[in-house]
Amino acid sequence: MAEQQQFYLLLSNLMSPDNTVRKQSEETYDTIPGQTKITFLLQAIRDVSAAEEVKQMAAVLLRRLLSSSFEEVYPSLAIDMQTAIKTELLAGIQSEGSSNIRKKVCDIAAELARNLIDDDGNNQWPEILKFLFDSVNSQDVNLREAALHIFWCKKFHDKVISALLQTMEDQSNPRVQAHAAAALINFTEDCPKTLLIPYLDSLVQHLHVIMVAKLQELIQKGTKLVLEQVVTSIASVADTAEEKFVPYYDLFMPSLKHIVENAVQKELRLLRGKTIECISLIGLAVGKEKFIPDASAVMQLLLKTQTDFNDLEDDDPQISYMISAWARMCKILGKEFQQYLPVVMGPLMKTASIKPEVFVNLGDQQSFGIKTAGLEEKATACQMLVCYAKELKEGFVEYTEQVVKLMVPLLKFYFHDDILHETTITYIPYDLSMPLLLECARVRGPEYLSQMWHFMCDALIKSIGNEPDSDVLSEIMHSFAKCIELMGDGCLNNEHFEELGGILKGKLEEHFKNQEVRQAKRQDEDYDEQVEETLQEEDDNDVYILTKVSDILHSIFSSYREKVLPWFEQLLQLIVNLICPHRPWADRQWGLCIFDDVIEHCSPSSFKYAEYFLRPTMQSLCDTRPEVRQAAAYGIGVMAQFGGENYRPAFTEAVPLLVGVIQSPDSRAKENVNATENCISAVAKVMKYRPECVNVNEILPHWLSWLPLNEDKEEAVHTFSYLCDLIESNNPIVLGPDNTNLPKIFIIIADSVANESIKGEDGCSKRLANVIRQVQVSGGLWTQCVSVLNETQQKAIQDLLNKA
């Protein structure tokens, strides 16, 4: 015990800021034998009483030891010690409460496993694969994450894929095969495409061999369990590989069509459904051009099933697979799918109209319940309706009214939290359905559009006030904001505004109250890291709802402009509270965004509120959080563009602050670049719209050196529009003496096209293309400009000339 405590002290000293203490500790650590190190490090990781930083350091050192000195240390350990290490690592992954430590233990397990599986696939730690297979199929989120984290550790996933495929080929154990196939499905679903591609050929060839063998087994013996899983594995691989699956398309499609055509017995319904899903996912992956020769035959197979749809039992698994497959076929075929709507819409509407069964048990203890069977299918069907509306647009108009009348009542359809936690019901897609349906309704003219909107509007507002689930609430709020943007000025009456104002005020007050409650919980004696994780999750949810409040206000300001300011004043003090210096950074970010909308859309009328936001905006330009800097910089830009004369004194102070942010050493770091580009755009807007407030000639050479903008595409358009103004007016500072700056301008334009900061359809693209064409006819100057461009830049210039 004393030795272990001394070791903990040593680990602490290894993290000491004092160089002398740290160096002495490193020397002491190096003298400890490898076997002893492993014992002490593992004990430290598994000790629930040890400080977290000690456990973290122990985990890092143990992984480093296994990585750098495996051959020197591990083989010399006694067999029971080796077994204990493996057992303790797996136990630690399952029981560790800290997600940070758990990931580090996963890293250790992956490093050990990598060393215990040789190049021929021989595995000296079979328990790790069983653990991975079990964990990736587990209901425990932490275990699933741990399994995937281990799986994707560098140099380990290839060995796991190899082991999975070997297990799947174990013909003597069908259940083990099915289990391995299920694990492969989970891995490939979460696998980044770039990691899957190197193993794609081997993976596909193995899956094809197994599918052919299992298809023969089905014909000869009637066994189907493994085949079902293999078909889903193929679908998952195709879904992840996307266009890279094209070379393997012809390997699978004939067999898959054969299954759908012939697997008509009742006991094969699930296999048939999964195969229908597989075909549609492969079609979506490879694209219309590759799929189109088979499209007609596949559609006929689906139509035949659809014709028999009324004969299917309500719990037939084919129904949900069919509904999803039709939606994928719609995405593949586009407008050509419209001809099939009369066939598919009936069963789809029937499924989307499923009502939950309410039951009451009247025994000694009365109970109330909701039967959730069919609700997953209902949600899926609603998602498919949204897909049709999105893909077909005006082609879906015949069904708009009945879908609206189906979807709007669903806004009142919600479960108590306890039920949601006990089920895996997919949410109804509120965030897209309403605005997409309005888009479809537009084809029939403004009167019909207005009728559809009035049917939706009251229900949307009431749902924002009543919806208890934050995920669903955020979708409804997003949907409502998009609808207002689409409908524009006049879409809300006085009663709507009154009700909405009260609801938004309540949401903001609740936001502040929840923050106070969380702060109080941090003072409780039970407060620990797990509590903090929960509180952080609650905070993230609250901030997300705040972003949706901002979305709704944005849509209202952009539609109603200064006319809505009297209504806004009931929320004013709450928004002002958001931007107080002591508030969390996310509050300040979104508070500034709301005031940015006031400035942008209410023009000079916004200045009456400048006393509340002008000073916080200036201070926020130098905030430590890039999100806050970005919101503040955008605000300066719209002040210059839309704010009017009263804002003029602000720019004298703002521009040096903006320049300071742009010129800071880490301004182009990934986390800072969007804020920096907003600052560059804000400087451009001040020079363009308020040139009398700054020394334009002094700033322009610096501004030109900051271009191009590559990340913020919207601000890039504003910036290049100003650059076009300067070039077209032959600005001597921008063009330089004898046009010496033109090669630099060509590089800026080329890089912007290559990064898609400017596109052919943008107005400034045509203007920039005209600049290039004017230089083209000037002989030597053209040669000089093109000579500084690399191959990618030259291609970008040619693309711009071809498209603009």
From TrEMBL:
Keywords, alphabetical: Acetylation, Cytoplasm, Nucleus, Phosphoprotein, Protein transport, Repeat, Transport
InterPro entries: ARM-like, ARM-type_fold, Importin_beta, Importin_rep_5, Importin_rep_6, TPR_IPO4/5
SUPFAM superfamilies reported in the protein's UniProt record: ARM repeat
IPO4/5-like TPR repeats domain residues: 99-234
Places the protein is found: Cytoplasm; Nucleus
GO biological process entries: protein import into nucleus
Cellular component GO terms, alphabetical: cytoplasm; nucleus
One of the record's GO molecular function terms: nuclear import signal receptor activity
Pfam families (alphabetical): HEAT_EZ, Importin_rep_5, Importin_rep_6, TPR_IPO5
Superkingdom to which the source organism belongs: Eukaryota
Protein family per UniProt: Belongs to the importin beta family. Importin beta-3 subfamily.
Annotated protein name in UniProt: Importin-5
Organism in which the protein naturally occurs: Sinocyclocheilus grahami (Dianchi golden-line fish)
